[in-house]
């Protein structure tokens, strides 16, 4: 498991609104960082740090954790690399990302997991936690080398991009991963139903003349997998949930005590299938943008705690691919650099969640799902911290992003709320110009 190297300097984040949901903290305080770790959180901590940063009117929180990103390395380095993805993460306030194994070749063995960790260590900008493939080649037939990948540092398993079609293969995977207490993260779309589909199936897809897949494609797999998780006792996580019904299925399973968790992405809270009216492939994503009723169902799930985590599914794609016609273009949107602003727009501005509630879903909750020692400001923990300006208004311009790709559906949107400083293992990995702080040398190429 990868940590960025820390330097010896002490940093004092002074006078911010410190929000640390894991410790039930929401108060004005200072945060002192020493030797790459959190030294103390409290009032009136000494000013004799090497670097003192005024955090008045800002939120100081654990570094954000995105448990669902695509970093495209190895194999699709023209879209993203572990270094550019780490830099994009830092710019978005993230200090940890878990990367999906649908690379070329896929992350389905020990050497591939070690490669990711090595590249992350070279980039030295963000903790990168590899997710191993469930099946060899992500082909859905033969289990991958799960035990060896766990030893190499894989924190969970997924064939993301597709569901594991075979119930017996997933059953064995769940039995196997539960021996290591690792989570199965499933992309829930019934393969037969989504084959050839470009968007959500319904009146809108018929009107647009685009092939659609019904939302039950997701519901069926969520239902099946929860049954398997209940039987095996495996920890099971629903990736990018997008329907009202599957949210309800997760809600009921939780009530029965099934070890199920779920995440939702900004686009499934802010956009509906009507965005496809433009035939702009920027709005093509898998699972697809859904109906208003589904969006409302997901929002209710976020509010009542059915949905534990907020993830981006950051999915970079090359310009020429996203310029193809809707049917031919690949699904996916980038999200790391807009996550805070878009989630704030969906949840904070309409007062559906408080900042502590939203931050919990972007820090300690995903940390618990993937089993990493991050997501809090407890003394002694690695100093992964974000400073957020909750009232900073900014306009999205993907051309300025650190990600190598530009497939952002929010281009030109006005957002409120931004990470103005990111500290990973005690080193500054991102600082907005207004903060008057230099990014540490040798991080973030
Ligand atoms: O839209 C998507 N794009 N959904 C996925 O599950 C995979 C991702 C990708 O890798 O491009």
What are the SSEs and their pairings?
Elements: E1 11-20, E2 25-34, E3 37-42, E4 51-54, E5 59-62, E6 64-69, H1 82-91, E7 94-99, H2 110-123, E8 127-132, H3 146-152, E9 156-157, H4 167-179, E10 183-186, H5 191-194, E11 199-200, H6 203-208, E12 212-213, H7 216-232, E13 236-238, H8 244-256, E14 260-264, H9 267-270, H10 292-304, E15 309-310, H11 319-322, H12 339-348, H13 355-362, H14 364-370, E16 385-395, E17 414-424, E18 427-431
Parallel strand pairs: 1-4, 1-5, 6-7, 7-8, 8-9, 9-10, 10-13, 11-12, 13-14, 14-15
Antiparallel strand pairs: 1-2, 2-3, 5-16, 16-17, 17-18
Helix pairs in contact: 1-2, 2-3, 4-7, 7-8, 8-10
The structure holds (4S)-2,6-dioxohexahydropyrimidine-4-carboxylic acid (DOR).
What does this structure look like?
There is one protein chain. By secondary structure, this protein is of the alpha/beta class. It folds into two domains: 11-60 and 381-435, Urease, subunit C, domain 1 (Roll), CATH 2.30.40; 62-370, Metal-dependent hydrolases (TIM Barrel, Alpha-Beta Barrel). The chain is built from 14 helices and 18 strands. The chain has helices spanning 82-91, 110-123, 146-152, 167-179, 191-194, 203-208, 216-232, 244-256, 267-270, 292-304, 319-322, 339-348, 355-362, 364-370, and strands at 11-20, 25-34, 37-42, 51-54, 59-62, 64-69, 94-99, 127-132, 156-157, 183-186, 199-200, 212-213, 236-238, 260-264, 309-310, 385-395, 414-424, 427-431. Strands 1, 2, 3, 4, 5, 16, 17 and 18 form an eight-stranded mixed sheet that branches. It has an eight-stranded parallel sheet with strand order 6-7-8-9-10-13-14-15, sandwiched between helices. The chain has a two-stranded parallel sheet with strand order 11-12. Helix 6 (203-208) links the parallel strand 11 and strand 12. It is globular, with a radius of gyration of 21 Å. The mean pLDDT is 96. Bound molecules: (4S)-2,6-dioxohexahydropyrimidine-4-carboxylic acid. (4S)-2,6-dioxohexahydropyrimidine-4-carboxylic acid (DOR) is lined by residues 70, 102, 160-161, 187, 285-286, 313, 315, 330-332.
């Amino acid at each position: 498991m990868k940590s960025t190297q820390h330097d010896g300097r002490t940093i004092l984040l002074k006078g911010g609104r410190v929000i640390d949901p894991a410790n039930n903290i929401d108060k004005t305080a200072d945060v002192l960082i020493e030797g790459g770790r959190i030294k103390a959180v409290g009032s009136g901590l000494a000013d004799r740090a090497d670097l003192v940063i005024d955090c008045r009117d800002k939120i100081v929180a654990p570094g954000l954790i995105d448990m669902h990103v695509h970093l495209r390395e190895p194999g699709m380095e023209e879209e993203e690399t572990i270094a550019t993805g780490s830099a994009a993460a830092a710019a978005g306030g993230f200090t940890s990302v878990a990367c999906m194994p649908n690379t070329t070749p896929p992350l389905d063995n020990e050497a591939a997991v070690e490669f990711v960790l090595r590249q992350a260590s070279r980039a030295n900008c963000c903790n990168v936690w590899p997710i191993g493939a469930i099946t060899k080649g992500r082909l859905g037939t033969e289990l991958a080398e799960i035990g060896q990948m766990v030893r190499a540092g894989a924190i969970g398993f997924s064939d993301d991009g597709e569901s594991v079609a075979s119930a017996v293969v997933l059953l064995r995977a769940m039995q196997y991963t539960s021996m290591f207490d690792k989570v199965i993260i499933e992309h829930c779309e019934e393969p037969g139903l989504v084959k050839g589909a470009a968007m959500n199936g319904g009146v809108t897809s018929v009107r647009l003349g685009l092939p659609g897949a019904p939302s039950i494609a997701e519901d069926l797999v969520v239902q099946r997998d929860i049954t398997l998780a209940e039987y095996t006792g495996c920890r099971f996580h629903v990736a990018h949930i997008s329907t009202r019904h599957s949210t309800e299925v997760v809600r009921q399973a939780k009530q029965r005590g099934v070890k199920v968790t779920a995440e939702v992405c900004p686009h499934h809270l802010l956009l509906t299938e009507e965005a496809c009216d433009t035939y702009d492939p920027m709005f093509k994503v898998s699972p697809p943008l859904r109906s208003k009723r589904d969006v409302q169902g997901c929002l209710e799930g976020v509010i009542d705690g059915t949905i534990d985590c907020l993830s981006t599914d950051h999915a970079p794609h090359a310009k020429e691919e996203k310029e193809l016609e809707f049917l031919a273009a690949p699904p996916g949107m980038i999200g790391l650099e807009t996550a805070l602003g878009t989630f704030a727009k969906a949840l904070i501005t309409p007062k559906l969640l408080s900042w502590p509630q939203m931050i919990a879903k972007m820090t300690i909750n995903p940390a618990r799902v993937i089993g990493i020692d991050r997501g809090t400001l407890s003394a002694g923990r690695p100093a992964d911290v974000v400073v957020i300006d909750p009232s900073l208004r900014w306009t999205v311009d993907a051309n300025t992003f650190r990600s190598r790709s530009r497939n952002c559906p929010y281009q030109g949107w006005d957002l409120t709320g931004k990470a103005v400083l990111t500290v990973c293992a005690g080193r500054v990995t991102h600082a907005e110009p207004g903060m008057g702080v230099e990014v540490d040398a040798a991080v973030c190429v």
